[in-house]
Structures are given as structure tokens and as C-alpha cells.
Amino acid sequence: MNDSRVAFALDLPTLQEARAMAHGVREDVGMLKIGLELFVEAGPQAVGLGAEAGLPVFLDLKLHDIPETVERAVARASALGARMLTVHASGGPSMLRRAAERARKEGQVEIVAVTVLTSLDASDLAAMGLEGDPAARVVSLARMAWGEGVRAFVCSPHEAGALRAALGPDATLVTPGVRAYGGGDDQKRTMTATEAVHAGADWIVVGRPIRDAADPAAAARALTHEVARARGQG
């Protein structure tokens, strides 16, 4: 495992494709993110790609259910070897507390609370009956999760600065919605890798800019170097 702070989103439809991609970029990223598409396809075998590639796994399932169900799922994710596991902060205090407590008991996995999805903006929140801008909601949800023992959070780069100011240096901030350049897709609150780090991100999550590049390893290497420079390490 290297010291890259790039988590590569392994968003591929089959285990075979994901394995090939993981092995192709394993020297140039610091973590593999396994999301819903691949987990639904391959289940525990998808998590096993991390061990095959020599990288920790960020299991991005965004759990949101009754506390008992989520707590038991945390235990299973830990047994699979996941290093990080996402839950929705909007699942509420009891769910978050039991997830965080079970993760500490298992000693393997860290709970990462998802605040507001990067696909949502203020107009989307309003349509859902949630007033206020995304940044205010991100901070509110994160403070609540922090009070229940969660110490790692997913937020867009645009809210990383506010979250860092609210929670301090001990919070781990994971930022999807990082782009190497402009481009249209379903992510609405995006930044470059350098901007995300300067805003306070500890990890950046990158999928399409690596996966869809002509040379994925070179794209991953460039992003890792960019993040290292932004962190003052290169």
C-alpha cells in the first residue's frame, strides 16, 4: 500500500472488469471504493479485490435502516475486511451511535457518515421539503453524527471548509465530486483535487476521470501527485 490519498471508485459492472482495473491502478491509488453497482453484482468477492490488490477497501453502501439492522451490517462489513463503511447521517442519532459503537467493538472498520449527496443542490433539497442551502445541512448533520461518535464524513468539496471549521482537525473528511477538469455529469457540487485538499479534504474519491481515461494508471498517478502537492508533500 502506498501513501496516496486518492480513493478510486471501482464503478464497474462485473467482477472481472473491476479486478483488471484494480490491478492496473493499485500502485497509484491509496484505496478502492466499492459501491452499490459492484457490490450488488459480486457481493463479498468485490470487497476481496482490496486484499488482492493490496489496498484497503472503502465500502460505500450508504446504509440507512433501523439501528439493529445497520449495527449487524457493520459487523458483517468488518468481517469482510472493509476499512471504511458509509452510512447516511440522516438515519438518525440511534442508528449512528450503534453503528459507531459496533465499528469500535469490531476494531476493523470505520463508520463514515454521508451528509448531503453531491448530486443534490439547494433546489433539490427544497423539492424534498428541506429548507436551507446544502452547506448548512451538511454541518447540521455532521454535528449530530459527531455527537454520536462518528469521526469520518463524506461531503462535497464545497462544504469541506465549513465542516473542518465546525469539527476541527480530528475529523476525517472524504470528498467525492472531484474532477480533473470541467465536464457535465450528475455531480453538481464539484471541485478539482487541489481545490478539495485546500478546502480541507483528507481523502478524495475519484471514479470517472480515472476509469474512463485512455491510460487509467497515468490518470491515477497524476491525481495522486496533484493531491500530494496540494498537501505540501510534493
Describe the structure in your own words.
By secondary structure, the chain is an alpha/beta fold. The protein has a single domain, classed as Alpha-Beta Barrel (TIM Barrel). 48% of the residues lie in helices and 15% in strands. The chain contains eleven helices and eight strands. The protein has an eight-stranded parallel barrel, surrounded by seven helices. Helix 2 crosses helix 3 and helix 8 runs parallel beside helix 9. The protein is globular, with a radius of gyration of 17 Å. The two termini are 18 Å apart.
Quick rundown:
The chain is 48% helix and 15% strand. The chain is an alpha/beta fold and 234 residues long.
SSE layout and pairings?
Elements: E1 6-9, H1 15-25, E2 31-34, H2 36-42, H3 44-53, E3 57-63, H4 67-80, E4 84-88, H5 93-106, E5 110-114, H6 122-127, H7 134-147, E6 152-154, H8 157-167, E7 172-175, H9 193-199, E8 203-206, H10 208-211, H11 216-230
Parallel strand pairs: 1-2, 1-8, 2-3, 3-4, 4-5, 5-6, 6-7, 7-8
Distance between the termini: 18 Å
Which fold name fills CATH's third level, the topology?
Answer: TIM Barrel
Shape: globular
What is the assigned CATH homologous superfamily? Answer: Aldolase class I
Instruction: Label the structural class.
Output: alpha/beta
Mean pLDDT: 91
